[in-house]
Amino acid sequence: MGRHVLPHVDESSVRRAAAAVTVPHTWLKVPMEPTDAGDWLPPGWVVDKDEAGHLMAVDLQVTDPVVPKGYTAAVETDDGVVRVRVRDAAGDTAAGGQMALLGRATVVDLVTTEEGHRRRGLGNFVMRTLADHAVAEGAELGILGATDDGRALYETLGWKVHAPLAACIYRPR
């Protein structure tokens, strides 16, 4: 299982990327309308309209975030992936996210806030912490694929939508 994100869309790139996948439940995110993506996919691939979203980007800047009261945060790096984890007073995971640097850009992924901890600034904190770490490592541009729900948070932080994002998953029979 894995995720692949194509930065540019053309039929041969989509077909080549999809054909290279052999592991079931691997995702392919493509900056195009979900309704059009299926035409370029080989057998075994499905366009998951529920997972479609928005390709977003922002020029990164340092903001020195402070973890919200009642929570603690840890930042860990493992094999080039930076993860932020926020825990509540009981030590349970409340929010988190991760990023990977690609030259002067960073790709943010898997930003979540648990249901009982929403509307407390945790997503904002996670995003700003990831951005600060990316800038410290030399990144200038942030890129992510947003769900409809996540888009609202990212827009409050200055992120802009640049394209629709089709979510395709390999489900061979």
Structural class: alpha+beta
Q: Write the CATH fold name of the largest domain.
A: Aminopeptidase
Taken as a percent bin, the fraction of beta residues is 35-45%
Q: Low-confidence stretches at least 5 residues in length (pLDDT < 50)?
A: none
Helix content: 10-25%
Number of helices: 4
Q: What quaternary form is this?
A: single chain
Named CATH architecture of the largest domain: 3-Layer(aba) Sandwich
Number of domains: 2
What letter string, H or E per element, gives the SSE order?
EHEHEEEEEEHEHE
Q: Find the CATH superfamily of the largest domain.
A: Gcn5-related N-acetyltransferase (GNAT)
Largest sheet: 10 strands, mixed
Structure write-up:
With 173 residues, the chain is an alpha+beta fold. It has 2 domains: 60 residues; 79 residues, Gcn5-related N-acetyltransferase (GNAT) (Aminopeptidase, 3-Layer(aba) Sandwich), CATH 3.40.630.30. It is 21% helix and 39% strand. The protein contains 4 helices and 10 strands; from the N terminus they run βαβαββββββαβαβ. Strands 1, 2, 3, 4, 5, 6, 7, 8, 9 and 10 form a 10-stranded mixed beta sheet that branches. A hairpin with a 5-residue loop joins strand 6 and strand 7. The longest helix is centred in the C-terminal third of the chain and has 15 residues. The protein is globular and about 50 Å long. The mean pLDDT is 94.
